[in-house]
Amino acid sequence: MLTGEVGKYWLFTQSFTNMCSVKCLRRVLLWCLLSNWISGKDLVASTVASSLCLPSGLNPEFRKNLSKAGESYPVGVVLADWSSAHVTSAVFEILIEEVLGYNIYVDPRSPASTLDGIYALIGCTTFMNAVDRGCTDRNAKLHMMSESWWQYYAGYYALAEEFHGEIPIEAGGMGYTGSDGVYVPKAILVEAENETGLALEYYKSYHPQWFKPWVYFGNVSDVDTSMVLPCHLVGHFTHNASTFVYWSKTGDDGGVTIVNNSYKVFCADGFFWRAAACRSSPWKCILFITAGDGWGARAVMDKATFLSMPLAIAVANSAVNYVTIPHFYKSLIYWWTPDATFMDLNPTKLVFPPYNAYEWNERQVYTTAGEETPSSKLISHDLEFLAPDIVKLLGSGTFDINAVNSMMAEQKGSGLSRKKVACNWLKANEERWRPWIPVETACSLGFGLYDETKDRFATLRAGATTCRACLPGTYSMKIVDSVGVTYVCEACPPGQQQRGAGAVVCEPCPLGTSKGYQSIENCAPCQAGKYQDQEGTLMCKDCPNSTTTVLLGVTMLSDCVCKEGTMDVNDAGQSTFAVSKECVECTEGIRCPDGATLKGLQVGQNVTGFSGPAILEGYFSWSKEPLSIYKCPEPFCPGGRPGTCQGGRLGPTCSECAAGMYWANDQCTVCEVPLKVTWFVAIVAAFVLMIAAYYGTDPRYRARATVKECMSIGTDLMLAFVQNLGILSAVQVPWPGELRVLFEFSSIFVLNLKAMGFNCASHGDMQQYVLCAGVFLAVTGTLPTLGALSHFLPSLKRRDLSWNFYKTICVTGKFLQSGFTTLCNIGMVPFMCFLHPNGTHSILKYPNTFCNSSEHWAMQIGGTVVLLLAMTHFIVCAWACHQAPVWSRSTPHRLVGIGFLLANYRPSTWWFGLTLLIRGPLLSFPAVVATNSPGINLTMMFFVLQISFALQLYFLPWKAPILNIVDATATSLFLMLLAISLHLEDANRSLVVLELVGVGVYYVSIGVIACVWFVSLALLAWQRCFAARREPKIVNLGALPDANDVLSAIELVTMSLAQKTDKQKEFLLKKMSFEISAYDLRIVGQALDILFDDCELRPVSQSAAGATARLAAKRMSQMTRRSITYLRPSLQKELEEEAQEVHADTRIVGAAGALEEQPEGVDAEVEVRQVHSFNSSISSFRDDAL
């Protein structure tokens, strides 16, 4: 639909005909046109009339604004730039102001098209700028537009998508339609009818074969070509596609030309396209004038060709000439209605065959009349909420085309403003517009009664002041009262909802939702475990037992799936409930989210679309038996789909590579020749190492550790530590990555040699275990055999290199002693069976070997043999330790055979090696009794090491003090590592036992301390009540040596030293300096300090500066009478000799006299205690001296 006021009335035509030339008339018409446009613009700018129109109109001071979000503003009007919109909009503006009582604001920018008006109502700030409409910061302050042609605009629905919820909506039709086409001026029609009765308003009257219509029109040759466009400048004439379609449909070769491979309309004189009906006789052609880029020209060409109409089409080169030409030349006009441009010519539309949509839209043949376009009012999306009465007014108000034409004619003829013309129409047609005015409480469908004073919806007309659109969750319900029909907003009943505003009915709850009560709320989606496959229900249905839903709002029973932790093992249960779902509990090692199915586990998918069921990391199952889960003690089971192992590993626990392959670089690698040779060389090297071990071993025992011995003992400590770590590495704890690598390295020392390519030397769990167990049996048998063979080799005997019997025993024992922890661990390996989730058992170290299988029985036999070897070694060592003190005095050469057992320890703790032998099997034993409970396993290991640690701290067994510190530090750190391991372990599997152990430890620790206190209290009472003179043995952890024996020993030592020559004393000095144990030498020094200080035997001439740092008890002054009497002669003699040597020291004499004057009333109990203290010191000295 074309828009815009492009012409004005023809003024003073007759008066100027004789006075001016055509050129003069054109100038006069141009002046009239422009002046009329300017005056019209000035009138539009006025937004408020200077006076009221209607007698009962509401004065401006009583009018109201719209209110939204706390903001108040008038009703905004978009005034289109064409005459019919001007007058019809003015009618509505007056009614809104003076009857409804709203303030009006007319935007001074007049849109030239409906598209501009749509952008204005959306809230775009620069809605007339086709390049940038300014829609980024939208703010809808314009609310209504009269006479829009939005149906004509094909892009309206695209805009509706772009500005969803903000697009303007139609507020009702205008009451008339718009129509464009070919029009005939009234004067020409009258002339033809009067002269010949020819009805020129019908297309058939233009057929040249039967009629001569050209006689009533002007000659085309008389037209001033300066007023029309050349054909090559007309858009429709030069459009290639359009012209080609015309030519292909009509076959009019004479009306089309081809220029540069492009189809163009052919104009013989360059200005007029002549139809075939008059092309050979140009004087018969009837002028058809249009404008723009050839508005309607293509449709008129089709009609002229197909209907044989003698037409010549020309396009005016300006709006002024478009208006001028029909007034000077009798012609047909392209025009549209309603419009005031050619109203003075009173043209009539030429009648063609009725509109044929198929011809126009599909065939692109335009021989029928064009489609009439409905005209309607547009409002902003929010006006129906802001002012529903205005919406009602616009919806009710309609005009007929005659009313609009009369108002346009009045405005054009009188020059009155549009508001004045509209006012005149309103005054003359009150019976027409009065029904448009809505009753405030006469609500329309989609609205309900509303009380503005209380800001709420009302249920009765008496409590309402206006109408408002029903809110979401309600619907508009019709009621009839004494006044008439109206509507109220009612909450949706149970089982129904309404999401939109202004609804007339509530909708049933959709599938997957329900609503059990009347409210404005929407239907709630079904919660987890429920579904609804029907609409409009009050509640959702429960899923069958053991099933649930993954999403909310489930609509089908088939969407009920097995709950998390269970799996549907029914092959057909994945689709529908035609076959019921069989949900079973998932075993350990399977991740079963909601909706897990057996088929989903096999293919790695889930029916819910989320992550599906999968084998957890650290577990394995076969593809054919996906629910039979195996636990992998080694980190080679990545999980995921059944049958998945890392790096090509094999077996139900992914614990081995195929034959001829070994594990390297995170994958199974083919064994290469160099690796096989390496293992052969290792065997040979081990044989050579056994021979070298014999000749490199020094079996002699030294009480004091040398630097070389410290290094050797440190090596033993390190070897024992890494063996303990190797045992710990077998505990089923999820070690962190780097720590796991370190444990894997430590496991080599307990003969876990898979990482070193052991598969290349043997294959299969059975072979590997036999080889590991055979190492100890082989070495234990090989060393004595080599010793025996050495006596049959003359060359060795001549060089005195044949093996000594006791030294051979020592080397063999040293091997078993150093590897005793590993020996016991290997012997217990076949008895460490851990449980798989599927109920089967595997050997912890060899998980591909199942317990109670033939291989397992054979391995248990081998393990029993190894344990017998370990037990034999321990029994022999225990017997040797028992005999060692005797042998050291009677047959010291035998000590060479047990040098491996004694060499590392102090003479007083020679037996401590037995505790380490016991510790080895005790560390491995928890894995036998608690294989499936890592927490219990770790706790038992912790207790074993804690006891070992306590014994070590009490006895300080190692010869070098630094070694005791190192061993204590290493053991404490290992205890810390065990504590960390307990934190990493999943305690759920052993929580009950650990809880009992924890409670037991708590009560035992409290009980031990309480027991000591109560025992001490009881002993104190016993001493007081029964006058006991001796301290109980429990206090001193055993009986104290007799004081007489101690004193006798001191006297013997004194006599022995007195009989020594100087050389003997020098030899004794060297022996004390280099051979006596460091701990023993310190004990001797401490004993002497006790004698010197506590017994006051230090000679006066000797200074105490070099004494051991300790408190001097000086108990001599508190000794009993019996002790003093016993010691008096010797002490008196010693004091006299000392006095003579230092010239009678008076202090010593005084001290001797004081001894004679000791009072007899000394408490007997105190005397006894002092004697016991003295005797204890002497006893300690005697034992160490011996």
UniProtKB/TrEMBL annotation:
The keyword DNA repair does not apply. It comes from the Eukaryota. Keywords: Membrane, Transmembrane, Transmembrane helix. The keyword Repressor does not apply. SMART domains: Ephrin_rec_like (SM01411). The chain crosses the membrane at residues 677-696, 717-735, 768-794, 815-837, 857-881, 935-955, 962-982, 1002-1022. InterPro entries: Growth_fac_rcpt_cys_sf, Tyr-kin_ephrin_A/B_rcpt-like. Residues 518-560 form the Tyrosine-protein kinase ephrin type A/B receptor-like domain. PANTHER family: INSULIN-LIKE GROWTH FACTOR BINDING PROTEIN,N-TERMINAL, SUSHI, VON WILLEBRAND FACTOR TYPE A, EGF AND PENTRAXIN DOMAIN-CONTAINING PROTEIN 1-LIKE. This is Ephrin_rec_like domain-containing protein. The lineage of its organism: Eukaryota, Sar, Alveolata, Dinophyceae, Suessiales.
